[in-house]
Amino acid sequence: MTLVAAVVLAIFGLLPIANWIPGGHDAPWYAERMRLWVSGGTIVLGVMLVVGIAVRRHPGWWRAGAWARIAARWRAGARRSDAIVALLATACYAVVAQVVLSARPLLIDEIIQLYQARIFAGGRLWAVASAHPEFTASMHLLDWGGKVYGQFPAGGPAMLAIGTLLHIEWLVGPIAGGIGVYLFARLLRLVESRDGVAFAALLLSAFAPFALFLDGSMMNHVTTTTWLLGAACFLARATGTPSTAAQGTAATVAGGAPRAAFLAGLCLGVAATIRPLDAASFALPAAAWLLWRAARGGWHARKALLLSGVGVAIPLALLLLINRAQTGHALEFGYIAMWGKSHELGFHEAPWGFPHTPARGIELVNLYLLRLQTYFLETPVPSLLFATGALFLVRRVSAFDRWVLAGSGLLLVSYFAYWHDGFYLGPRFLLPLTPWLALWTARFPAELAARNASLPVQRAVVAGGIVSLLMGATLLLPIRAEQYRNGMLSMRFDVEGLAADAGVRRALVFARESWGAQLVVRMWALGTTRVGAEQLYRTTDACRLEQELGAVERAGGDSLLLVQRLAPYRADSSRLASLRGSSDTTARILPGSTLAPICLRRIQEERAGFTLYSPLLLARGDDNIYLRDLHAADSLAIAAHPGRELYLLTKDSTTAGSLRFTPIRLDSARAEWAASLGGTP
Questions:
Q1: Sequence-separated (6 or more) residues with CB below 8 Å from residue 373
Q2: CA angle 210, 211, 212 (to 5 degrees)
Q3: What is d(CA 575, CA 582) in angstroms, rounded to the nearest whole number?
Q4: How many helices (H) and strands (E) does the chain have?
Q5: CA atoms of 143 and 274, how far apart (whole Å)
Q6: Distances 366 to 5, 21, 350 between C-alpha atoms, Å
Q7: Of 128, 183, 177, 126, the residue nearest 151 (C-alpha)
């Protein structure tokens, strides 16, 4: 099993397989990454050579006692030592959240989950839909059947809802990450008897850049990983397989197996309410392990199996009840209700219209592991090199290690069958693998020693690892932090503060989005499904879509009429090209076509400045209402909110990184709407 894992990491984590498969995903950055590895590897190898020669000539020059004493003190410190490391990690995650990520949700996934969290915190499962939900519609937000709620499983927003109630939403990720560090520390005391290895693994897992940045975010991968670590901790106790250092407690562990199994199941069940796929990947091998023990053991083993199932069932039952209340079907999640069967696992047409094939699955797994080689530790050499080496060298593994390897393998297989490229702050789908990769990374020097490698080789390898980490921490990590800090600026605007500075209070504010975003939302308003709207937008000339949308809207038609009117133009989809002169690269135009006046008007408005509406779903303060600007249709929202001052919110093209509130005169707006409907600028 370890040899298979090592081969997978070596092949998929080092070779650009995605670049060799025609079409689909690729890694255009691979050549640059390889140059970094070659140059960084040359420096590291030079240090290793010097250290190896020095140790060979002067064997007493490097004594390993210092690290052994530090690790022994950590082991002796028990819970207190673990808590100190966890608190330090939490503080680091909190600094990242504030300084790098602006303590705000930056990805649409975070925004919608926080929106749902606030609904939960208000004591409801959904918000009541307005008469015209297109003004507040958003990707990943269901807004039909009189209900408004996020597409994600309820567990993730429920975790954030705790932060909402305590007014510390931005701290949920850092605190969950810190709890995960504490749980991993407790687990290492059970499954790794070598103090130096265990403490090194703890530090690598707690402060690995990949975990550092993601744990500062509001992504649900963080809370999922924490619950999975809780499950691992209790599973180790339930199976009665403590490390050599803890053999004295074996009887106690075995006696507490049923209770520990229940808690392991409970943790897996909670993880399943957040990210079902991740939880299932580790739950299935755990169930098989407990079943095997029940078949061979006595009453305690059978009771442990039964109680683990009860533990899983409790949170899952709550999830199914929420699903039923929201979507009408216990087994139907919000994302299936929104996107249909195309969102599910398997090889079929994906929601965006392209087919997800086994070849694409291989490309995605390759990309995830290639990215992890950099994002995991941010070293100038491949980050998984030590872990791969340890997996190659190890002779025997424990039953617990086999469970970890089986769960990790199933996780990769699951995302091989999933169509979406999950990239944000690194290959985020693989965050649950971080603790185990840290453990195998820390084991590499010990496995060399177990294979009787010479002392100079052992010391050279440790020196190489330390130099790589130091180079990464001082040279590469600050660059990554600055990259993240300067990214996604449109999602970081403090709209409440800007509104207060501009004197905008108890106003109706219309946020102007890009032309393409407006087209998509207008299709939603006609009843077009999310999948249908995406496919129409990607395969239709934007100007033609604008004109036909307007005609259908004026005729009071629906999505079926729109599809019929657009059908003659779909044959040109392969000839579409990005619209030149537009800052929205998603809009496509048929080359050589003449733009209608209404299309020219939309492009001019876009150039004048636009913003994103989704972050405004979370805007609070001064009793302002933020809606999406839909031009002539804005009259519907104005009628629904009489007596409020009107403002247009756009990106300020004269002041970098700011928004502009422009007062709207209703008579001027009506004249402009009439001109737009008449087709003259």
A1: 13, 14, 33, 382, 383, 384
A2: 90
A3: 18
A4: 29, 9
A5: 21
A6: 14, 11, 19
A7: 126
- DSSP assignment, residue 612? -
d(CA 229, CA 184): 6
Alpha carbons 16 and 27: distance in angstroms, whole number: 7
Q: Which residues contact 479 (CB under 8 A, 6 or more apart)?
A: none
Render pLDDT for 391-408 as a digit per residue (tens, 0 to 9).
999 988 999 999 999 999
Asked if residues 249 and 242 have their Cβ atoms less than 8 Å apart, the reply is yes
28 residue type, one letter: P
CB 353 within 8 A of CB 13: no
Residue 108 buriedness (CB in 10 A; 0-12 / 13-18 / 19+) = middle
pTM for the model stands at: 0.93
Q: What distances in angstroms separate CA 637 from CA 465, 509, 629, one per listed residue?
A: 61, 10, 10
DSSP β-bridge partners for residue 66? none
Q: What is the predicted pLDDT for the residue at 242?
A: 58
The one-letter amino acid code at 590 reads L
DSSP annotation of 655 = S
Neighbours of 199 (CB within 10 A): 24
For 340, which DSSP code? G
Kindly state the tokens that stand for 199: 């403490």
Question: How many angstroms separate the CA atoms of 633 and 373, rounded?
Answer: 50
Q: Secondary structure of 128-147 in the HEC alphabet?
A: ECCCCHHHCCCCCEECCCCE
Q: What does R_g of the chain's alpha carbons equal in angstroms? A: 28
Residue among 97, 229, 108 at smallest CA distance from 175: 97
Strand partners, 612: none
Structure tokens given for 165: 């109630």
| Degrees to nearest 5, angle at CA 205 with 281 and 61 | 135
Q: Which two structure tokens, joined as six digits, stand for 307? A: 């109680």
Assigned token pair, 331: 């087994």
C-alpha separations of 2 from 81, 402, 437, 460, 483 in Å: 31, 8, 13, 24, 36
Tokens 């590291």 belong to residue? 44
Q: 328-367: per-residue pLDDT in tens? A: 999 999 999 998 888 889 998 888 778 899 999 999 999 9
What CA–CA distance (Å, rounded) separates 109 from 86? Answer: 27
Asked whether 241 and 399 are in contact (CB, 8 A), the reply is yes
Angstrom distance (rounded) from CA 639 to CA 34: 60
- The C-alpha atoms of residue 291 and residue 88 are separated, in whole angstroms, by 39
- pLDDT digits over 559-617, tens only? 999 999 998 887 778 888 888 767 777 888 888 888 899 998 888 888 888 999 999 99
Q: How far is CA 255 from CA 100, 288, 293, in A?
A: 47, 21, 14
Q: Is the dihedral of CA 49, 50, 53, 59 positive or negative?
A: negative
Q: Which helix (H) or strand (E) holds 510?
A: strand 507-511
